[in-house]
Amino acid sequence: MHVIRNHQTKQFEAIYSLSAGRHWCLTGTPIQNKLNNLQSLLRFLRLSPFDDDKSFHKYISGLLKANNLSGLQNLHNLLSSICLQRMTEVLQALPDIIEKIRILELSPEERIRYSNITETSPKEIGSLVCAGKASSAYQCILNPILRLHLFLQPLYI
């Protein structure tokens, strides 16, 4: 959700341009800071007519800004029709997590690749944080997680 909450960014445009038969989002906060966060989700999901700025303003944001209660009703109807909400009771009924630990035997080449990822990533993240570039640090954190996932994935097959 965080990477598509603003439909005016290059990152949103890149993600939006991906071809797929279906689009879906998983978020605990469909409206994080602004109502426009929701509009970006609707645009990503291609939920017409609300994915269009003018329609979203006409039926939701414009009415809410004018203190028109129909805007709130429209927002409620929209969210209830597109969102699946899990209540605490449902979550508590889920089975307990079963944790399995597997020790992987790495070849010398795999050990070098693994060490490279785990040793260089904290340094890169630390330098970005120290330089005051927190947003870049977030992206830098996701990169080694993805690299580790891709590295370990064939080992589980």
Describe the structure.
The protein is an all-alpha fold. The protein folds into two domains: 2-86, no CATH class; 108-156. The protein is built from seven helices and no strands. Helix 3 (53-65) packs across helix 4 (69-82) and helix 6 packs antiparallel against helix 7.
Task: Please write out the topology.
Blueprint: H1 10-16, H2 35-45, H3 53-65, H4 69-82, H5 88-92, H6 108-130, H7 134-156
Describe the biggest sheet? none
Q: State the low-pLDDT regions, or none.
A: none
Q: Helix- and strand-based class?
A: mainly alpha
Instruction: Give the end-to-end Cα distance, rounded to a whole number of Å.
Output: 30 Å
The ordered string of helix (H) and strand (E) elements is HHHHHHH
Mean pLDDT: 80
What is the number of independent domains?
Answer: 2
Q: Work out the radius of gyration.
A: 21 Å
Number of helices: 7
Overall strand count: 0
What share of the residues does DSSP label as strand, in percent?
A: under 5%
Q: What would you call the shape? A: elongated
Q: Could you estimate the helical fraction of the residues in percent?
A: 55-70%
